[in-house]
Amino acid sequence: MIAHKKRHITPHYRAQRMFMSAQRAAKKNNEPFDLDVEWIEKKLIAGLCEVSGIPFAFKSLNTKRGGVGSQNPFGPTLDRMMIHKGYLKSNVKVVIWMYHAGKQNVSHETFMQLCRALVRKEINSQRDGRTKPTPAVA
Known about the structure:
single chain, 138 residues, 2 domains
């Protein structure tokens, strides 16, 4: 693997990229910001999404669309619990991209309402024999 590509999968490099991106967004939108690289890196080293507990994937899926970890649904990203409260440690969680993308600008509670409905539907479909069980996340 090329050296510059290897660094993309390190927690420190990813923390730096996530920090710079959040700092840029906060400045552009005139929002409060108190994150630091070490805080983000510590959460990345812990290795788990703070909402789902699913392990982070640091490798890109090689979609050739660019971006560090591009298109990897299990890649880490920052999620603001309250979208208008800025990038504050008290308002930010490090989560998998799939959660962040699904949640968008709604509350965690609203998103979880959808998740519970999907699980109920899946369980009922399996019980009725209409679908096969969904494989567990690797």
